[in-house]
From TrEMBL:
It catalyses: Endohydrolysis of (1->4)-beta-D-xylosidic linkages in xylans. Keywords: Carbohydrate metabolism, Glycosidase, Hydrolase, Polysaccharide degradation, Secreted, Signal, Xylan degradation. This is Beta-xylanase. Residues 7-315 form the GH10 domain. It comes from the Eukaryota. The active site is at E237 (nucleophile). Belongs to the glycosyl hydrolase 10 (cellulase F) family.
């Protein structure tokens, strides 16, 4: 196609990107499209920089999976959004079932961050330093970090990440914050209080796991409200799923929905980029998680371009 990243950059964004994952790296036709910088100027590792992948046993670090994706991006001349440092999910069992005190978990978390962000120091555009800290009602998710350390785990994590890699932009990333609502308000309140305390925070990541025909209203205004806090914003994990089978009507609605999200980012100058959560239905996470749903990506499972692709171009 004409090139999603080319169109994004012409519209003033830094990048249009895609997530990928290590098992996919041997798929040559897939890699050829992923590596085309007309389409993608940025890559996110979907799994291999997460805690369970990088520190499966305490203080033993493995970077081979993350390194493979970083090296692919560097070889292609693409930037990397690193994902993620602190998240309730995909934690090794030594974290979830450890018997922690505030002091011991803070030390383990800080050690994780300094080793992982330290390993990639100078190599990544940004880190999703804290991922999915909120429940949908805007209360804090009561995970092991919150329950043991309290809300200050977020500030501590951001400070440790800044120390480990001073040049990586630090994001808080969450889903269901595309439109206004309790969860978006909670994000605004959190970032406001972090800034007031002088805690390093550079960006809000808006994941964008959406449903065809069910986009929230007010996406542009919501992105602008985030940007007004003095941070950049990015759409970090965009996909727009449907109940299968896909029909021409659903695919046409999906095209419109992709266009709507892209146009909202374009309209907000602090919205620096858009990342799709893999570019092809061949490797989308959706069918395994939402039974009966899928077809969420701009390329179909045979690596053919869908109408959604043209929706993205039209949005730019
Ligand atoms: O590694 C094992 C493998 O050994 C085993 O054979 C296989 C069998 O199921 O599972 C593999 O682990 C899977 C892992 O992905 C790696 O492929 C897990 O079961 C699976 O649950 C895991 O899913 C990932 C999911 O995060 C976990 O929450 C998805 O690939 C990944 O795309 C998804 O990404 C998240 C973002 O990090 C945060 N936002 C939401 C997004 C979508 O869920």
């Amino acid at each position: 196609g004409p090139g999603l990243n080319k169109y994004a950059q012409a519209a003033g964004l830094k990048y249009f990107g895609s997530a990928t994952d290590n098992p996919e790296l041997t798929d040559q036709p897939y890699i050829a499209i992923l590596s085309n910088t007309n389409e993608f100027g940025q890559i996110t590792p979907g799994n291999s920089m997460k805690w369970d992948a990088t520190e499966p046993t305490q203080n033993t670090f493995t970077f081979s999976g993350g390194d493979a994706i970083l090296n692919l991006a560097k070889g292609n001349g693409q930037i990397l959004r690193a994902h993620n440092l602190v998240w309730y999910s995909q934690l090794p069992s030594w974290v979830t079932s450890g018997s922690w005190t505030n002091a011991t978990l803070t030390a383990a978390m800080t050690n994780h961050i300094s080793n992982v962000a330290g390993h990639y120091k100078g190599e990544v555009y940004c880190w999703d330093a804290v991922n999915e800290p909120f429940n949908d009602d805007g209360t804090f998710r009561t995970d092991v970090f919150y329950n043991t350390i309290g809300q200050s785990y977020i500030a501590t994590a951001l400070q440790a990440a800044r120390k480990a890699d001073p040049n990586a932009k630090l994001y808080i990333n969450d889903y269901n914050i595309e439109g206004p609502g309790a969860k978006s308000t909670a994000m605004i309140n959190l970032v406001t209080s972090l800034k007031a305390q002088g805690v390093p925070i550079d960006g809000i990541g808006v994941q964008g796991h959406l449903i065809v025909g069910e986009l929230p209203s007010g996406i542009e205004q919501n992105l602008a409200a985030f940007a007004a806090l003095g941070v950049e914003v990015a759409i970090t994990e965009l996909d727009i799923r449907m109940t299968l089978p896909s029909t021409p009507a659903l695919l046409a609605q999906q095209q419109k929905d992709y266009q709507t999200v892209v146009a909202a980012c374009k309209a907000v100058s602090a919205c620096v980029g858009i990342t799709i959560w893999d570019y092809t239905d061949k490797y989308s996470w959706v069918p395994a998680t939402f039974s009966g749903q899928g077809a969420a990506c701009p390329w179909d499972a045979n690596l053919g371009i869908k109408a959604a692709y043209n929706g993205i171009l039209a949005g730019f």
